[in-house]
Sequence to fold (315 residues):
Amino acid sequence: MSGSASPRRGWTAVPETITLDAPAKVNLRLCVLAREASGFHALETLFCAVSLSDRLEVRQADEPGIGFAAEGGVEMGPPGANLVVRAAERFYAALGREPRVAIRLSKRIPAAAGLGGGSSDAAAALRALNALHGEPLPPDELLRLGGELGSDVPFFLCGSPLAWAWGRGDRLLALPPLPVRPVLIAHPGTALATADAFRRIARARGAEHRVPAACCELAALTSWDGVAALAVNDFEPFADELVPGLAAARAAMAAAGAAVARLSGSGAALFGIFATAERRDRARAELRAAGMQTWAAETLAALPAPQVDRLRTNS
Ligand code: C5P
Fold:
């Protein structure tokens, strides 16, 4: 059930269960700039959310604590280290309230693939918990909590499925979404750790490397043609060296008609943006035959909204 209830006088209806889809992201452009004194790299990137999603359900519980269960067969490590649990801990600390919640995560997005799955789950946890408790934390507080959890988390909290980002990827300009396009996601099955990917770039560049400041005309980000002309990923040469077949797979996507065919994040997932579902599906059949795991998706016109599944009344 979703929607409104008609509470009796003196009673308020509060959500008992919230369900929220947590979409993957691809980076339509990703430039790694200077390594800052903090050890983090300055980035310039264009984030785009896609329909391949995990699903998060948060439910009020009677017992104190943060219950967490995950399904989907994606390797996620111990529950205490899971970003969803850490997001919930931070949420309740900011709220100054003892947690009494059960969280269930259905995983579809491959982990350590450059698709932002863990970050999106964490952002979804913050949004869903905020909805569960009647939106007590303002958006800028959620962004602050998200930024402490990971560099990609704020994007999933910025309110738009398309955003230009800089700093660690946490400074954001939400952009109007582009027209929805079919997307192919392909994963070779090799997990790549983000921190290692940044270390590889830093080592290859050396201390003397001078990175030109990247900047682009925001007007270029208002059409797929403009975005296609800017699409690049600085991690690609490094991922190509580690994972055989990536360059060939991007070439196959381009040959099938992809306007953009790139590595996502620090890899090793690839994505292609297509004008038609037929072209995407042709590329999908080819990459599957080459042994890659593939998903047919679309770019999103809006970030998913929390769904109230059940209401209960409070006096
Ligand atoms: O923020 P996140 O947890 O995704 O980052 C993982 C690691 O990647 C960081 O600890 C850091 O070593 C590296 N990183 C970086 N520059 C960034 C983002 C991440 O060097 N902008």
